[in-house]
Amino acid sequence: MAKITLKNLRHSYMPNPKGPEDYALKEVDLDWQDGGAYALLGPSGCGKSTLLNIISGLLVPSEGQILFDGQDVTQLPPDQRNIAQVFQFPVIYDTMTVYDNLAFPLKNRGVDQATIDRRVREIAEMLEVTDMLNRRAAGLSPDNKQKISMGRGLVRDDVNVVMFDEPLTVIDPHLKWKLRSKLKELHQRVKATMIYVTHDQTEALTFADKVVVMQLGEVVQIGTPVELFERPAHTFVGHFIGSPGMNVLPAELRDGAAYFHGQQVALEGPVNPGTTGKVEIGVRPEFVSLGDSGIEATVRRVSDVGRHYVIDAEAGGSKISAILNGTAPMVGETVHLQFRADQTRVYADGWIASTPATEESAA
Ligand SMILES: Nc1ncnc2c1ncn2[C@@H]1O[C@H](COP(=O)(O)OP(=O)(O)OP(=O)(O)O)[C@@H](O)[C@H]1O
């Protein structure tokens, strides 16, 4: 396994790119640590496949370098990069048995028979497909085929990285959670560097120790699932992660204080000096509650989602969502919303622009 470094990477599909908008990947600098479980998360078109293809060698970047353990591989073709890939659709040989499918990547490399047998049986046991080893792959269900595809990606222990590109696309929804947790478990056992590409936050957050969130060809935040939830570095991360996503409300700054719809809102800590641009307040629905005072709002929608209620209220033309326990208000009712101060942050032009009070007092 290897540490993978992306250095000043940029890629444009155009022959003569001019502005940043001509780049499918804007400046990307990233270190993927040896043995880490990473997710690359972002909406369709944000540049995930472009980045994956650059790492695997299918695409040579317009600018920058890719290093495996410090060695420049930017110009190396895929077959010399020693990478395993699992795609959206199962890549297996229907006419072969499950055993032979799993053994294939090892046979190809001239691995000895005893090692092949040991490794195939280990992987089959991890994937819970031992009872299928002698069956022909043609007869398997789509999810079992994809399991075997994953097994083929994991069977070699000498690859630099295993990359999964939306691997659960073909899996039935009710089986997805099973394979999702299986993959996490596999990472813990195999300890390979793994990159899991998806647009699905649940998949990313379940699988990864660190999630790389991309938007419009840019990495907007790298963090643990908890970090992304608790302190989104960008409003996009706030929106994209969470259900419902973070409330992002238009705001004004005056003398270091933030105002929404003319009313001061208590913040996690000071606003960064010199903050300008489009100012917004971000607070997750989990940290919005009802009180006797606070922001006056009209309830527009109440959804009972089992363990709690989600309400959408309107204040000053903005929608504010809250996750509430206990008794839900009625649609049309006027309520007062309170934001938990230590979870209320300022964003300027999308980027976080306030600092937690504790960090400041520790400084
Ligand atoms: N071969 C290509 N030629 C020209 N433009 C491309 C090519 N491949 C991708 N693009 C453009 O580059 C940008 C990033 O695309 P990319 O496929 O990397 O995103 P993605 O996040 O993987 O999306 P998806 O999940 O839909 O595959 C998009 O604007 C896309 O239209």
Automatic annotation (TrEMBL):
Record domain ABC transporter: where: 4-241
GO-annotated cellular components: ATP-binding cassette (ABC) transporter complex, substrate-binding subunit-containing
Gene Ontology MF annotations: ABC-type ferric iron transporter activity; ATP binding; ATP hydrolysis activity
Enzyme class name: hydrolase
Record Pfam families: ABC_tran, TOBE_2
Entry annotated with the keyword ATP-binding: yes
UniProt KW Cytoplasm keyword: no
Record-linked SMART domains: AAA
CDD domains: ABC_Carb_Solutes_like (cd03259)
Keywords: ATP-binding, Cell membrane, Hydrolase, Membrane, Nucleotide-binding, Transport
UniProt EC number: 3.6.3.20
Family: Belongs to the ABC transporter superfamily.
Classification via PANTHER family: ABC TRANSPORTER ATP-BINDING PROTEIN (PTHR43875:SF14), MALTODEXTRIN IMPORT ATP-BINDING PROTEIN MSMX (PTHR43875)
Protein name according to UniProt: sn-glycerol-3-phosphate import ATP-binding protein UgpC
Organism from which the protein derives: Thalassovita autumnalis
Lineage, top ranks: Bacteria, Pseudomonadati, Pseudomonadota, Alphaproteobacteria, Rhodobacterales
